[in-house]
Amino acid sequence: MSAIRTVFVASMGLLACAVARADSACLLTPAQLQSLTGRSFSEGEIGKDPGDGSPLCHYAQTDNPRRKLTIGMTSAQAERRFESRLRMLQMGRKSIEIDGVGDRAYYNGTSAGVLSGNKLITFSNLRRASDPEIAAEKVVAMLQVALQKAESL
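Given the sequence above, the corresponding C-alpha cells read:
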C-alpha cells in the first residue's frame, strides 16, 4: 500500500509540474535568448496579458532590468491575432513573413511570431533599432525551439 501511495504522490507531483508549465510562456532559457540576441537575461517572470489573460513571460536584461524581452502564447483566436499583428507590424511595407517554421511566421527586426494550428507564440522587444541586427535564420531557429517546447506542454 505504501508503494502505491508513493507512486500516486509522485505522479501527482509530475502532473502538477506539467500543469504549471503548460500555463507558462517561458519557453526559452536565458542562455537560448543570449545566443540569439547577444544580451544576457534573468530567468523569465510569468505574467498574464491584461487584455485576455493569456500567458506572458518577461525576461529582464541583466545589465538593464527595465529593458525586457517578452514572449506571449495564446490559443484564443490565434489566426485572427496573427493577421492583426502582421498588418500592424508590416504597415503596408514589404512582407515580413518568414518561412521554415509553423504554418506561418513573421519577423520585422524587433518582433517575431509563429502560428501553428491554433497556437500563436509572439516575441516582443527582440532588439532595439540601435542594436545589431538579428539574422532571420536565427529567429526561425528560435521560433522552432519555442514551438517545440510549447507543443510538448
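The mean pLDDT is 86. Try to locate this feature in the C-alpha cell string yourself.
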